[in-house]
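REQUEST ID: PR-0412
SUBMITTED BY: lab tech R.K.
PRIORITY: routine
TASK: structure prediction, single protein chain
INPUT:
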Amino acid sequence: MSIPLSVQFVLLSLALAASGCSEEEGSASIPKAANAVPTLEQLPKCERIAARLTPLLDGLALVDQDDGGRYDNVTVYGISCSWLSREMQSGDISQQVKGGGLSIAISIDETPSDEQMLRKLGMVHDDARAEDIGGFVVDVSKRMEPSAQLGIIGPQVVVGRVTVTATAAGIALQKVESMEYITNDQAIEAAIAIHRMLR
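STATUS: complete
OUTPUT:
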């Protein structure tokens, strides 16, 4: 017996939401200017993001979502992509309950995040790589260890109005054994790579 894929995705989405926080022909062009903000249509598809982040996402299965994971709310729009761990892909329910997934989101807000305010709150993690692209890293937990496994509260790389966030969690909010190789530092590197894709 196995957990249906639709149920797996619902469980994974609930877990990741608890944090609060090859290019196809015909796709829209990406703005080249460093300060350009992509439109909703110009955001890269999840498949393109996965191709850019190989081998980090090797072995993980992309979840098929309505509208390709794109969303457009009143004050923010973006795309959210999720991948299931090896355990979740198993036909064995005893393995599936140990599984989870990884989520990467690109969000564009009406106004940029206030770095100075976040720094005063102790939520900015200094990272030269982010500074090189004109951004900074937000650590909502205020105690992120770069070498630790990526968890449900992941780092956010902010450049102007664009934020890229990476999170990972099991369906019971636990850390997933098969994804222990994905660290906070690798998540920051991945987020920076995505920011570069948008230029």
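NOTES: The first strand starts at residue 61 and ends at 62.
REVIEWED BY: pending
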